[in-house]
Amino acid sequence: ASTAYLAAGLRGPRLAGALTLMQGSARAALVGAPMLAGLLSSTLDVREMYGLAALLPACAACATLLLAPPAATPAASPRDRRALDPATPAPDPSARITVAGMCLAEAGFVLVTVITYPYFLPLVHEIAPGLPPVATGVLFAAPHLCYLAAAPVVLRRLRGRARVGLAAGYALACASAVVHVLPALAPDAAGLVVLVFGRLLLGAALACGLPSLSLLATEAASGRRPGRLFGVVEAGAKGGAVVAGVAASALAGLSPVAPLIVSTVAGVALAATTARFTSARVPHESPERSSPT
């Protein structure tokens, strides 16, 4: 709903920037929550922590009621299109990523990144037993902190190169999964250092992939109803989360690093085929619409 709300009132680079900023709010929560939970766990019990957490969505719901309805905004102008893709002179204004391609891009990125989240704590305990909860929270939050630091600059650099950025995001997520596996297979004194490097690689994947998805979403929204479009795209993203959860659950009994195999294989496959499934196409008009009256 939040994505559709933004797309109903914004177009072109402004929409891409707003989507990137909205992702930043989610990443800020993922930065603060683990560290705050680590600090509060020593003074509050679980029920008290859930009570505090329940206040946050209540406050967000109240703030949402104050939002004005989005104003109707015309389609992006040719100037906006060239700002999104300056490397392509005078593109066909009707060419855009397909809805199926957008769904696959979103679902794939969720699959290669989210699959590691639930099993990160067991992995840390295996690599660095006795690590304080706050330090574990900092490790979990590190990729999201990288996104917050780099996303505004990366968004500007990737305008016109969203597909390259998305392929890089998939590849970096794959590399991060491989690096996460190494200290678990051969634990030593440097295992924690290798794990930190793996978290930074995941942060680079988020910093490349998420702004690229925002740029592609802006392209997809041109000429389409935003509510329906982003409802379908969000369903695709949740499909990726479901596949990640099922695959991770099936492999988690083997080892905490086993779910990372899925991220590695999927990252390679998606990086190799990004240009194909995200290619811009001109929508075909039906004969009824194209014939003169």
Q: What is the terminal separation in angstroms?
A: 37 Å
Unreliable residue stretches: 73-77, 79-93, 285-293
**How would you write the strand order of the largest sheet?**
1-2
Number of DSSP helices?
12
Structure description:
Helices cover 74% and strands 1% of the residues. The chain has helices at 2-9, 12-40, 46-64, 78-84, 99-114, 120-127, 133-158, 162-185, 191-221, 226-252, 259-277, 287-290; strands spanning 96-97, 280-281. Helix 1 runs antiparallel to helix 2 (12-40) and helix 8 (162-185) packs antiparallel against helix 9 (191-221). The longest helix has 31 residues, at 191-221.
Write a brief structural summary.
It is globular and about 55 Å long.
Write the layout of secondary structure elements.
Blueprint: H1 2-9, H2 12-40, H3 46-64, H4 78-84, E1 96-97, H5 99-114, H6 120-127, H7 133-158, H8 162-185, H9 191-221, H10 226-252, H11 259-277, E2 280-281, H12 287-290
Antiparallel strand pairs: 1-2
What key phrases describe this protein's structure?
single chain; 293 residues; two-stranded antiparallel ribbon; 12 helices
